[in-house]
Amino acid sequence: MIGRSSTDYLPIKIPVGLRFANPTYGLRARMKPMTTLPATSEKPLARDGFIMAMIALLGLGTMMVFSSTGATRVLELRTDYLVKHLTFLSLVGVMFLTVINLPTRLILKLAPWMYLAGLGLLALVLIPGLGVKINGARRWFHLGPVSLQPSEFMKIFLPLFLATMSRWSRQRTYTLANGIAFIAILITPVLIAIEPDLGTAAIVFCMGACYLFLAGFPLKLFVAGFSCMVPVLGGLMLYRPYQLKRVMDYVTALGNWENAQYQVKQSLLSIGSGGMWGIGPGRGLQKLSFLPESHTDFVFAVIGEELGLVGTLATISLWLLLFLCGVKLVQSVQQDRERFALAGTLLAGIVIQAAINVCVVTSLVPPKGISHPLLSYGGSNLLATMLAFALIINLTQQQKNTLSDDHLHSTQFD
Questions:
Q1: Rounded CA gap, 45 and 327, in Å?
Q2: C-alpha distances out from residue 52 to 6, 125, 147, 321, Å
Q3: Where is the chain membrane-spanning (predicted)?
Q4: Given pLDDT bands bounded at 50, 70 and 90, which one contains residue 40?
Q5: Of 131, 158, 301, 329, which is most buried with the most CB atoms under 10 A?
Q6: Could you report the per-residue pLDDT of 157-212, keeping only the tens digit for each?
Q7: How far is residue 60's CA from residue 39's CA, in Å, rounded to a whole number?
């Protein structure tokens, strides 16, 4: 081809056998592997697009935090929301720059301790007097002027822990590694569901399953995991009838608007009143104590009212850009099963959470208290989301060697 040398598209051999478990089993083992990759990488462009979309969403989130807390500033004379959010942004920025430059091996060495610490906090938060109960859920620790929600960080710590189990599996301890991973994926969402927080519990469980899928985990453990998890979550819904009632009310309201729940009505009114271009930033009316949790779970409705259909589509487009660039980054490390599985799981978890939040706000699924990453107010959510993005960049830029202990399969990318 004119203008290209013969080395532009050299075949790169994809190492085989870097599976989480026995390479003859698992869903990934049944998939046809890619055998060549282009030597010229589009990764720098994908990384720049990923970071720009992330920064744009952070900027939009900061504007929406200021706008959606306007009623609180007037009615409760509180001005600390924006100050706290900007403080969180500063701390998160330092954390982000630190994590992307840490050695990946160091992060994986710390992963078991981070997971055990997170698991301990999940247990401690359930103890009255230690965990703070808000709106019937005991999910937070109060540490002076700030609150800490341990369940947010388990979205990161669980996949990291599973990556550590993947390293153990190469030492031929398949049964032990599989057993520990199976227990971790079950016990973590169960502790979160007890708070109760079924939405976060479901996301954490799905992220664990996503990692095992990408890492080639045996199919029989998928079946066993879902067989154990479904009765547990079903039992918790029966134990707390209001959660089942929430689902039934949603089904009933599909044919009768009058039966819709209050927050659903207000959310749809907010989005509908915005029209094409919105009524203007800061001019929304539904956030004036009409729309519950307008600065957290329903911040996307405030975007719809103040920025209109154009604003909501722009927000979704930014998430789509971030996702597509993230997929490019993840694909660039496909030759290393651990990096591929871990980065892919973190990306999928955050994007799925954003998609679920949009579906809740637009009444496509039953209402559930799930915040919108990068847009909702909340330090724990912001820190966990940015930690996930920092790890994705870290995993996809430090790729001189695979994460295998023997360094048998090393590949250099641009």
A1: 12
A2: 34, 36, 29, 9
A3: 50-69, 81-100, 112-132, 174-192, 198-214, 221-239, 307-330, 342-365, 377-395
A4: very low
A5: 301
A6: 999 999 988 877 666 556 777 788 889 998 999 999 888 888 899 899 999 999 98
A7: 37
Tens-place pLDDT, residues 238-267: 666 777 777 777 777 777 777 778 888 899
Q: Residue 58: which domain range?
A: 54-99+256-400
The count of structural domains within the chain is 2
pTM listed for this prediction: 0.85
Mean pLDDT of the residues in the chain: 82
Dihedral, CA of residue 176, residue 177, residue 181 and residue 184, to nearest 10: 60
Which residue spans within 108-165 are E strands per DSSP? 132-134, 137-143, 146-148
Last residue of one domain, picked from the residues 210, 239, 268: 239
39 touches 13 (CB < 8 A)? no
Whole-Å CA distances, 110 to 90, 97, 164, 170, 368: 24, 18, 9, 19, 33
Same domain, 275 and 396: yes
Please tell me whether residues 316 and 348 are part of one structural domain: yes
Q: Do 75 and 124 reside in the same domain of the chain?
A: no
Residue 196, preceding peptide bond in cis (omega within 30° of 0): yes
